[in-house]
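Quick start: what a row looks like.
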Amino acid sequence: MWHLWIKLGSANANFYFASTLAAVAGAVILITDGLFAELVLMSKVMKIEENLEIRAPL
C-alpha cells in the first residue's frame, strides 16, 4: 500500500486513515500497559509498607 501511495500516487486516503488508526491503537496499548504496571507496582509497595507497620515494635 505504501508503494501505491508514495511511489505511484494512485492510492486513496484510506492509507493515511489505516496508518493513523494503527499508530493510535499502539499508543493506547502502550499507555494502558504503562499505567497498569505503575498500578501494580504501587499496590506492591503499599502492601510492603503495611506489613512493615504491622510488624514494627511499639
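That is the whole record. Residues 8 and 24 are 26 Å apart (CA to CA). The helical segments are 2-8, 14-55.
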